[in-house]
Structure formats: C-alpha cells, structure tokens
Amino acid sequence: xxxxxxxxxxxxxxxxxxxxxxxxxxxxxxxxxxxxxxxxxxxxxxxxxxxxxxxxxxxxxxxxxxxxxxxxxxxxxxxxxxxxxxxxxxxxxxxxxxxxxxxxxxxxxxxxxxxxxxxxxxxxxxxxxxxxxxxxxxxxxxxx
Length: 144
Hints:
disordered C terminus
C-alpha cells in the first residue's frame, strides 16, 4: 500500500465516521421523548464530540492535505479550493450559527421542560441540517 492509498483510506473512513455519527446523533434527537430524553441525546453528543467528531474531522483534513501532497494534485485546483473553503465554512457555521441555536434551545428547555419534545425535534433538525451541508461539501471532491 502506498502512502497515497493510505491517505485515501483514512480520508474515506474519516468522512464516513464524521457524517455517520452526525446522522445518528441527528436522528436520535428526532426520537419520541418516550424513547430518548433530550438530556440523553445531549450527553451522547458530548460523548461523541471528542471521541468521534474531532478525530474524524482531523482525519478528513489531515488525510486530504496528505492526498494533495502525495498525489499529483496542487492546492490550486478548483475542487480542492472548494473543499477547503467548504471545510472552513462548516467550522464557521458550527462555531457561530449552530452553536448559538443550540444555546438558545438549551435555555428554552431549561425554562420550559414541557417543551422538551419540540425542543428535541428542533435540535435534530439543526444537527441534520449541518450534516447534510457537510455531506454536500464532500461531493465536490474527485479522485481523478
């Protein structure tokens, strides 16, 4: 196995873990409150963050850069620029928009526990929306 093939395998597995874990978390927030409470889903998300999301995120970025360095690519190619731009935008959206929405939702749930089912649905839509956007970012990549 060449270094390029190793980077490619890491890149693909990292994308699958990143998007798969996000989809599972988003779907878990849509579960009826009789199955999962919002606090359980939040705890699951806090557990997934450092164990799955962060390593997968670093794997996608690091292996992607490794692919460019090892392959016959340059950072000047349009699809690589688009991929890096989309990556930067996903960070910006997570840090600003989605984080603010989740803080507002947490405050609403704390003030009105009766709305936890509706809050869970909103939380799920916020999470799924972010991962659909991330998945669409990955479609700009090509291996040839």
